[in-house]
Amino acid sequence: MNVFKVTFSHAWNHWKDFTFVTCRSKAEAIQKAMTEIDIPEVANEKLIITVVAEGQLGKRK
Known about the structure:
single chain, three-stranded antiparallel β-sheet, elongated
């Protein structure tokens, strides 16, 4: 399992939030983060989503 930092921000607004999630892939990290972050409803909503791999969980062999 990998640890990802997923950041959301509005393109035309000052709102920004992030969370750390553990998943296998970037796509899964985005989906999981979207359920954890309360994204405010804004007219003409455009989100910028940034995903950064922070590390791995568990032992390496």
